[in-house]
Specification:
This protein has two domains: 156 residues, no CATH class; 56 residues, no CATH class. The chain contains 13 helices and no strands. It is globular, with a radius of gyration of 25 Å.
Length: 266
């Protein structure tokens, strides 16, 4: 009888198998392996960005410093596309801010998973938080916890790869008479097509995309400079906010109708 009781208790409280902790070297290797495919995929973008920057008149050193201090591919593509002499600082700064607003959400989602990093480690991790690094860090945190060693293994290869490829692109691009003849100028468009595709949620996203495109096209023909990017972003954000408000209102009305029907039922 006592044996049967113990069997019933064990069945109602199954054993939990925790993932054994890994060493820093194993975490470092795991981070490197997981980021490697994404690092390779970034090579052509780094080369194209460097070539486009050289075509706009930036030196190799300036491109290298830009990649080292900014380390944000989409923001750098925006800056290079809008770059002219004199540079439109207000439009450029606001556009880059809007493009990188997603980092606020990315940082918020990762904040609770950096408990092993310390204050300085958190600051360093946030600096290196590119989209690809954030993605592998989130997955690692869900699977077995995020450690500084894993984050270093993921961040260092991507960062160094971006520095090297953009520098090579700038050095080689300076030798190319017309990068547009090779289609390099389409890189900016391709980057944002990828961003839009990543946020696509089906037909519900279509009004946002249409409003953003219409505003950008209208402002592009009416106002000189890079303000068309800002206009498109603000229009898309506005439509998305209005649709979210309508959905919330509609949901509230549905709840009220359900409550009314329930109260009228005998």
């Amino acid at each position: 009888m006592g044996k049967l009781r113990r069997m019933l208790v064990d069945a109602s409280h199954p054993m939990t198998h925790e993932t054994p902790p890994s060493s820093p070297v194993e975490d470092l290797r795991a981070g490197f392996i997981q980021i490697l495919p994404l690092t390779i995929a970034c090579v052509p973008f780094g080369l194209i960005l460097g070539a486009n920057a050289a075509a706009k008149g930036l030196s190799v050193i300036e491109v290298t410093l830009m990649s080292a201090l900014v380390f944000a591919g989409s923001a750098q593509f925006v800056a290079i596309d809008l770059w002219q002499d004199p540079a439109p600082w207000a439009a450029l700064g606001l556009t880059v801010l809007l493009v990188n607003l997603r980092h606020v959400l990315m940082g918020a989602s990762l904040a609770g998973k950096l408990d092993r990093f310390g204050t300085l480690g958190r600051s360093i991790a946030v600096f290196f938080m590119a989209d690809e690094i954030w993605a592998v860090a989130e997955r690692r945190a869900i699977e077995r916890g995020l450690t500084p060693a894993f984050y270093l293994g993921a961040a260092a290869p991507l960062y160094l790869n971006w520095l090297v490829t953009t520098t090579i692109g700038a050095a080689v691009g300076a030798l190319v008479a017309d990068p547009r003849a090779l289609g390099f100028d389409f890189a900016f468009t391709a980057v944002f097509i990828g961003l839009v595709a990543g946020f696509w949620k089906g037909r519900s996203s279509l009004p946002v995309v249409v409003a953003s495109a219409a505003a950008a096209i209208a402002v592009r023909h009416a106002v000189p400079g890079g303000w068309f990017v800002v206009a498109g972003a603000l229009a898309g954000i506005g439509v998305a906010a209005l649709r979210a408000g309508d959905a919330e209102t509609g949901g509230g009305k549905a709840v009220l109708r359900a409550e009314a029907d329930r109260s009228s039922t005998p």
